[in-house]
Amino acid sequence: MPVGIFRVSLLVLTAIVNHPLIFPKENGTVPEDPQDIIQKMKEREETLRLEQLRLEQEIAEWEATQEALEKAAKVVEEREEEKVRWDMWTALSMVIFLLIELWRQDFQEGIWQDTGGEEDDMAVLGKAFKGVAFPDKAILASFYEKRILGTTGDMARMREMVEGFADDLLEALRSVCNRDADMEVEDCMGVGSMYENWRVRKPFVCDLIVPFAPPEPYCFRSQIWCCGDSFPPDEQGYGTIKVCRADEAATGCICDKTKLGEDMLCLLHSQANTTRPSSEMEDLLCFKNTQYLDADQVMKWFQIAVTKAWNRISHKYEFDLCFSLLDSPGALKIKFRSGKSIAFNLTPVVQYENSDVYFISHFPRSSLAADLPSSTHWFLTFAVYERRFIQLVSKTLPANACHVSCLQILSFIHGKQCSLTGPSGLTNYHLKTVMLHLLQARPSQDWAPEKLEARLQDMLKFLEKCLHEKKLYHFFIGNGKVPAELGFPIIFQRAEPLNLFRPFVLQRDVYRKTVDTFHEMLRNMTTLINEYTVHIPLAQTNGIHKESF
């Protein structure tokens, strides 16, 4: 009981002590006025509202920052993916390029050389020949015998006469030249159709090349397009010739490339030899202020020398000699008192190292190449090796093989067509190149005389294919199958193949004219052959028949 009373008393005492009205001053949580409570509540509410706004602003800024970071990360990720994709395409492109390059190398080493020997390839060609009337074997044989074969004797007599006169003229030229200052002229060589026995159209013109060399102590050092990086792609087949002193290193002394001090001397060259006056190099037929041989200067010198030589020996001959063509500086013509004349070309050339490849200053008559980039660029001619290759292959062919006959007939028909419709981009050199490719591609027994018709068709098919693709490769350049017996320089076999039809890619008008002339020639072939063929009795031939190539 006492405990209960104590607890109740303690509870009452506690309630009295904590009553707010008993100790108002000590209890600060209870304001004296309700207005103060309302005012503080309003202030508290305003404070909470401002705090809420600040927090909302901070949250918005944080969200914006996070969004910007996400966008930046996404952009970086996209760039990385794009870079990966680009790297993948770059790698894929490189792989494709390498595969194409490997295929091209294989193609260069011989695939394109075998085109003429694949019957399947030939079967898909000849679209332009479908329905074209083509003369049969009897008419072709009669045409060749009556129209072409009789010219062989005339060519032999003309070659003999021209060579004898040219030797005499060059001997006189040596006698009028200054041996210590002028170029040294060697013996001439016959090249081209007259010396390969396939020229058919008159007037007959002999092509003679004359190698020459500089006087001592100078020498020629040549650079060709396939052994240096100074020649752009459009100058394939060209080279330059530098006139140097024989005692100079092939790369030249450093004193020619470095400015030595006034108190320094070259131990290899005397002070007199370190520089060569411009006039001295011009006397050596170099381009102005350079050491490079100038083709125009060479032709001017050669024309003057030939004129002096003729003046010395003209009293021995009963004919006149003159230059016949202004655009072909080496074109000469012998005029007899009877009114007859004989034309021939005498062209100076420079030997490439110790081979039978020559730098030629000008091509006579036909433009086998585009215009020279400059007079210091010389085109290379492989005419000597072409003649040797034909002679070498002819030894393996059957008697009276038809390879030369095919070329003669095609050359004759093309010439007659051009006389009717005007010149085209095709030249006799292109036709000979086609024959050289087929000679290498086909077995020797395919050139038997009774297969003249088939081989002529093959040449036309091959030529049609080349015109369609605008690709006719030079026979020697890039051809790894050249017979070793020829001793042909390996550097040209390893070079990039030279496309003789490259001008057709750039000159569309010339290409269209050439193709039109070719098709017109096919349509007119029978008419042209019949026009120049002696009549054949009907019993000896089946006449004209259709050929579907």
From TrEMBL:
Subcellular location: Cell membrane; Nucleus outer membrane
Domain Mab-21-like HhH/H2TH-like: 404-477
Coiled-coil region(s): 38-79
Any single GO CC term annotated in Swiss-Prot or TrEMBL for this entry: plasma membrane
Cleaved signal peptide residues: 1-24
Record-stated family: Belongs to the ITPRIP family.
Protein name listed in UniProt: Inositol 1,4,5-trisphosphate receptor-interacting protein
Species in which this protein is naturally found: Rostratula benghalensis
Organism phylogeny: Eukaryota, Metazoa, Chordata, Craniata, Vertebrata
